[in-house]
Amino acid sequence: MSNLDQAVLIVTMKEPVTFPTFIDRFCVAAEAFHIPVAIVFNKIDLLADGDIDVLESFASVYQELEYPVIFTSAEKELGFDDLKDLLMDKVSLLSGHSGVGKSTLINKIDNNLSLKTGEISTSHQTGQHTTTFAEMFELEFGGYVVDTPGIRGFGIVDIEREELAGYFPEMRKHLPDCKFYNCLHISEPGCAVKKAIERGEVAETRYNSYLNMYHENEEQYR
Ligand SMILES: Nc1nc2c(ncn2[C@@H]2O[C@H](COP(=O)(O)OP(=O)(O)OP(=O)(O)O)[C@@H](O)[C@H]2O)c(=O)[nH]1
Ligand SMILES: [Mg+2]
Ligand SMILES: [Zn+2]
């Protein structure tokens, strides 16, 4: 087996909902392991025009971070050229919550494959954990994908509080400018990360994810 070239996170705004914090946790974990991340927004057929605008502005945060971002609908077969370009001749791990359409996307971009897929539960609008173990498949157009079971949530990521901001690339570049070398970017004076947020160079949603992970780690140390 070859090494992994990239981790492709499949996310959906609806059925099921993928929250920004989840995306950022995934990005941080991948940064920690030095695995390149790409983000696929699937099920765009479920979105009304207004939702598409919201999605595009949300997705631009990740595009600015230079993560490849693509938009797909497995249902309507949209964005497949971009998806094939992303996966071609690479070894990719496909990841994301249950029900976002990981297995369906693989089936649809390679007609030789017929992985098991499952309906979304109508009561909870979530997937039903159809894929139960990770498995690698060769793609007819070149490359390999690893289909994986849906991630329920991340446990505590094993990163020291002092190092956490370093795994957010847009925060990382401001760290040398914080007044205190041990700044945690919470309420310290002269914090360069906070200033970057005010200038719009660090997205609020990303900083919220930082805080969320920071506080979770803090509880762990108590
Ligand atoms: N409307 C719509 N439905 C989709 C799309 N992609 C997948 N689905 C549906 O979503 C449901 C779940 O798809 P799966 O491919 O089983 O999802 P999964 O991510 O592999 O889920 P797990 O194996 O449980 O982790 C199925 O009913 C698919 O038909 C899409 O782009 N649009
Ligand atoms: Mg699956
Ligand atoms: Zn700071």
Q: Tally of extended strands?
A: 6
Number of helices: 8
- What CATH first level of the largest domain would be assigned? Alpha Beta
What is the CA-atom radius of gyration, in angstroms? 18 Å
* Inertia-based shape: elongated
Order of helices and strands: EHEHEHEHEEHHHH
- Derived structural class: alpha/beta
Give average pLDDT, whole number.
94
Instruction: Name the hetero compounds present.
Output: guanosine-5'-triphosphate, magnesium ion, zinc ion
Helical residues, percent:
25-40%
The main sheet comes to: 6 strands, mixed
Per CATH, what is the topology of the largest domain? Answer: Rossmann fold
pLDDT below 50 for ≥5 consecutive residues: which ranges? none
CATH architecture of the largest domain: 3-Layer(aba) Sandwich
Query: Strand-residue fraction?
Result: 5-15%
How many structural domains can be distinguished in the coordinates?
2
Distance between the termini: 42 Å
What does this entry show, briefly?
The protein is an alpha/beta fold. 35% of the residues lie in helices and 12% in strands. α1 crosses α8 (204-221).
Description of the structure:
With 222 residues, this protein is of the alpha/beta class. It is built from 8 helices and 6 strands; from the N terminus they run βαβαβαβαββαααα. It has helices at 20-32, 49-64, 80-87, 102-109, 161-164, 169-172, 192-198, 204-221; strands at residues 6-11, 37-41, 69-71, 91-95, 135-138, 144-147. Strands 3-2-1-4-6-5 form a 6-stranded mixed beta sheet, with helices on both faces. Strand 2, helix 2 and strand 3 (69-71) form a beta-alpha-beta unit. Helix 1 crosses helix 8 (204-221). It is elongated, with a radius of gyration of 18 Å. The N and C termini lie far apart (42 Å). The model has no long low-confidence stretch (mean pLDDT 94). Magnesium ion binds next to helix 4.
